[in-house]
Design a protein that fits this description.
By secondary structure, the chain is α/β, with parallel strands linked by helices. It has a single domain, classed as TIM Barrel (Alpha-Beta Barrel), CATH 3.20.20.70. It is built from 13 helices and 13 strands. An eight-stranded parallel β-barrel has the order 3-4-7-8-9-10-12-13, surrounded by five helices. The longest helix has 15 residues. It binds flavin mononucleotide (FMN). The site of flavin mononucleotide has 28 residues, from strand 4, strand 6, strand 11 and helix 12.
Length: 351
């Protein structure tokens, strides 16, 4: 029903408008007494307790989360947790508020089941986000805080932006994701060079030592690094003491797309997400997992539309998965469908 009715209606409007509209509608519905519980019941599975897993020292009620960029300002994680997500990664958050790139900056590639975005890390800044996180209602929900640098901060000073966000958010999140891989902020992904990775991760590990509790620090990587670059990035992150990886961010690649070349040229630059990213990101997961002998947790993200897509990532070495574009194209039952397959697999009852 989502694809045949709701999606057709929603996709009439520009994607950023739809995002705002849907979020406002959901927030409105949740004000109706009983709505939250009804949503929870509709979107959860029987036997879900068997999906519980401990990863990065945290207890996840199931392996499916909402990827960074959907709730940039921590404004709707309470409501969206009712769609079955066990964790939601807020952000990317920067020290100061910033408007991001000019519109239009989000595009659908319908023939490819994909999106291109060049949002440019638009967000309301770390102080605002911190104030929002104080309103967490579902105590079982895991919150990841994805941090970045302001566009106006030169790469040579980037570490101070990461430290500032880290210190402000640390007490309000369960893990920290370090975004060095966004393709939509000038030169940001250059920070994946080994020296910068080592400096930034090591600085955050040192900052963490000042807090009484030890929360995991994860590095979010790009799918566009060559195997040699990825190798060096991981070596640097390991040396610095990273706790795990998120693979992957969006790609600047445009290979093997069905969308017309003229349309792609009209859209212009930006990070591609969705189905065309699926296998690329799965290969990055496999690469990291093999390199580290499965010793570090990986959150797999990129092009998950079906339960089998999620299973492929878990089998390639991910301990958890996240969705973004698949949530938009497939609708809110995507989490329930993935979890259902995993439950059936556990009980060996494929249907
Ligand atoms: C509109 C949009 C905004 C995004 N913003 C962020 C962001 O702020 N920080 C980040 O780390 N990733 C961001 N991402 C990347 C997603 O978190 C995810 O890594 C990527 O889209 C691949 O997953 P998918 O194919 O399921 O969408 C964004 C993606 C989209 C489509």
């Amino acid at each position: 029903m989502y694809k045949s009715i709701f999606r057709k209606l929603l996709f009439i409007f520009p994607p950023e408008t739809v995002h705002k509209l849907v979020v406002s509608l959901i927030k409105f519905f949740f004000k109706i007494p009983g709505a939250r519980n009804a949503f929870r019941r509709i979107f959860s599975n029987r036997n879900e307790a068997c999906l519980e897993r401990e990863v990065i020292g945290l207890k996840f009620s199931n392996p499916v989360g909402l990827a960074a960029g959907f709730d940039k300002n921590a404004e709707f994680f309470n409501e969206f947790s009712s769609f079955g997500f066990s964790f939601i990664e807020i952000g990317t958050v920067t020290p100061e508020p910033q408007p991001g790139n000019s519109r239009p900056r989000l595009f659908r590639l319908l023939p490819d089941n994909a999106l291109v975005n060049r949002m440019g890390l638009n967000n309301k800044g770390v102080n605002y986000v911190k104030s929002r996180l104080q309103h967490k209602e579902n105590q079982g929900l895991i919150i990841g805080g994805n941090i970045g640098k302001n566009s106006s901060t030169h790469n040579s000073n980037a570490v101070s932006d990461y430290i500032a966000c880290f210190n402000e958010l640390y007490s309000f999140v369960d893990y920290v994701a370090v975004n060095l891989s966004c393709p939509n902020v000038h030169n940001l992904s250059d920070l994946q060079n080994p020296d910068s990775v080592k400096l930034i991760i090591e600085s955050l590990v040192n900052e963490r030592a000042k807090f009484p509790s030890k929360k995991p620090i994860l590095l979010k990587v790009s799918p566009d690094l060559s195997p040699e670059q990825l190798n060096q990035t991981i070596d640097a992150a390991e040396e610095a003491g990273v706790d795990g990886y998120i693979a992957t961010n969006t790609t600047t690649g445009r290979n093997n797309l069905k969308t017309k070349k003229s349309e792609l040229e009209k859209i212009g630059r930006g990070g591609l997400s969705g189905k065309p990213l699926r296998d690329v990101s799965t290969e990055v997961i496999r690469f990291i997992n093999q390199k580290l002998d499965g010793k570090k947790p990986i959150i797999g993200v990129g092009g998950i539309f079906t339960p089998m897509d999620a299973l492929e990532k878990l089998e390639a070495g991910a301990s958890l998965v996240q969705v973004y574009t698949g949530f938009i194209y497939e609708g809110p039952f995507i989490v329930k469908r993935i979890n259902k397959l995993l439950i059936n697999k556990m009980f060996n009852t494929y249907i």
